[in-house]
Backbone:
């Protein structure tokens, strides 16, 4: 089997493979489980392996490169126009292979493990920021139900909420004060994570 381009539709447990030769003829159509994928790839002569740039693609890229293959990732938006019929694993992998055979195709560079770490740090930080914003907005919204309005901005909320919790003249009940104290602690915790 002389595979020039091997398209792989990656998934969590079952992978669809489609290989073409230099003339563009299909020479492989195979489904493999996760456990069988690397042993199969390791026994192939070096070829170009193409996948969509999606979850898991960077891991598989590193694995395939370590087994002497060249790997290219294609953004899913560039693969979509090549899906000819109903969307399924086989049609998707044929589209990936077809897209890769185009000389003008744009590729996404696979990430190294270090780049993966940095991207993970950024994504986790973004989530902490989104969570902090959600907690601040919830505090403001709930306080408004007690007739307490806090100016926009985290700085105002950080300064004013402890004062409101100590103010015996507002409508906050003992239970309400405990709830807002917990939310304030959560906000402080998220501040530390940013």
Residues:
């Amino acid at each position: 089997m002389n595979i020039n381009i091997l398209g792989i539709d990656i998934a969590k447990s079952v992978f669809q493979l489609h290989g073409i030769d230099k003339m563009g003829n299909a020479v492989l159509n195979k489904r493999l489980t996760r456990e069988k994928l690397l042993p199969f790839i390791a026994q192939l002569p070096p070829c170009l392996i193409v996948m969509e740039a999606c979850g898991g693609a960077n891991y598989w890229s590193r694995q395939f490169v370590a087994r002497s293959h060249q790997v290219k990732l294609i953004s899913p938006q560039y693969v979509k126009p090549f899906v000819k019929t109903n969307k399924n694993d086989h049609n998707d992998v044929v589209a990936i292979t077809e897209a890769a055979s185009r000389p003008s195709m744009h590729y996404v560079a696979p990430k190294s493990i270090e780049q993966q770490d940095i991207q993970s740090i950024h994504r986790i930080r973004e989530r902490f920021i989104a969570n902090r914003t959600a907690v601040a907005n919830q505090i403001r919204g709930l306080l408004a139900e007690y007739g307490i309005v806090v100016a926009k901005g985290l700085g105002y909320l950080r300064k004013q909420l402890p004062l409101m919790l100590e103010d015996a003249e507002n409508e906050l009940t003992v239970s309400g004060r405990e709830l807002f104290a917990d939310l304030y602690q959560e906000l402080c915790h998220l501040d530390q994570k940013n």
In short: The CA atoms of residues 38 and 64 lie 8 Å apart. The longest helix spans residues 113-144. The helical segments are 34-42, 57-65, 76-79, 89-100, 113-144, 154-166, 174-193.
